[in-house]
Amino acid sequence: MAERLHYEIPAIDQEAQARREAYQELDALVISLHEHGVLRFLRDTSGSLGSLTRIAARQIDNQAGYDGLANLYLLARLAGRLPAEDFRRVTDALGDGFDAMSRHTTADEPYPPGLTGAYRLLKDDALWDAIGPLLEGIKAFSQALDAREGGTCKEPERC
To answer: Domain limits of the chain?
Structure first.
């Protein structure tokens, strides 16, 4: 009589399985990058990197270039001091303000003429509510400029 066969299923190699899945994902990524032209762009850019570097170096190799980089650094430092939520509010408000200015014409709401019109503007609470923060900002800006010029900066890390 025949003997019974004892077949044991080999254990799955988890590392080999993970490697196969990773290579499948990598193949899919490369195909997607090729289909969208990203690989061609990167190849062309890397081929012209030396030329791009020389052009950039020529553009910043003068006083205006140095000043531009210094100003860019100072703007980045300013943005870094502001909490992200406050910076978002400021940029959104600037965008809304520019949109309103571009849409507004004097035909929409003519400015009041003469002294009586100016008097009405002085009594406009909504106008003062809008101008108040702007005036506080101008005061703080002016005080900071005065402190830096006179050498009496109260916050040395900001001067």
So the answer is: 18-47
